[in-house]
Amino acid sequence: MRIISRFLFVSLALVLFAACRSQREKVVYLQDVATFDREVITKPYDVRIEKDDILNILVSSTDPELSAPYNQVLITRAQARAGYAANAGEGYLVDSRGYINYPILGQIYVEGMTRTELEKEIQTRIISSGYIKDPTVTVQLQNFKVSVLGEVNKPGSLDIKGERITLLEALGMAGDLTIYGRRDRVFVIRETNGNREVLQADLRKADLLTSPVYYLHQNDVIYVEPNEKKTQMSEINQNNNVNVWLSVTSTLVSITTLTITIIDKVNK
């Protein structure tokens, strides 16, 4: 009988270990990263300008008076009430054809360009006009944002100050996935050149690092799918669910201990 009691105890331990291992395989990121070969980044990812982007463009030179006509006028509220243009100083909107309307230079096709390419394009045009010999052009994207929905701790829109962000960084800014989020079913909804596509990422796999969604595009929408348990127990919050599992585990341990005690008494 003592052998039976030990068998029951070992069996329970194995069941609990298997359950823990199974959960670990579902939630741990980049599980096979040890097999991932080093990737040489030959060219850093550059954000491409798209329709409906808003660009902040500043032209400067050794003579501020010469560069002033190429810049938007920054106005006060009092000036706005007096009739100044409402969109002055608010950036250049890329229209539905991919153009911006730039002072003096007129319309410039910018869709598909990187920030650096547009800076060189404007600089070349200004120099060619013969008006300024030494212009410095700075282009920034004003509306670079991504949205994170689903099973994350802080869903919402994220305003990106830089010009590059990865999927993992965006999820980190959203507070990471909840315990209910499926690491193997993270979707990125993306619009490019008038086409909308849905891309899937598996955070558990190292090939995420070479995935087309590793670097995010402006206006990407990230959706983390809930797991089956969350779907079935949508009315139970995370803390209560943990308590349920702890209660079940405690009950199983108590039953096993009681069974072992009874069996030992019978043996005596």
UniProtKB/TrEMBL annotation:
Gene3D superfamilies from the UniProt entry: Outer membrane lipoprotein wza domain like
Compartment(s) of residence: Cell outer membrane
SLBB domain residues: 145-224
GO terms of biological process kind: monoatomic ion transport
Domain annotation Polysaccharide export protein N-terminal: ranges: 43-141
Cellular component, GO annotation: cell outer membrane; pore complex
Record InterPro entries: Poly_export, Poly_export_N, SLBB_dom
PROSITE patterns xrefs: PROKAR_LIPOPROTEIN
First and last residue of the signal peptide: 1-18
Gene Ontology terms for molecular function: polysaccharide transmembrane transporter activity; porin activity
Protein name in UniProt: Polysaccharide export outer membrane protein
Keywords: Cell outer membrane, Ion transport, Lipoprotein, Membrane, Palmitate, Polysaccharide transport, Porin, Signal, Sugar transport, Transmembrane, Transmembrane beta strand, Transport
Primary location class: membrane
One Pfam family recorded for the sequence: Poly_export
Recorded family membership: Belongs to the BexD/CtrA/VexA family.
Membrane topology: Multi-pass membrane protein
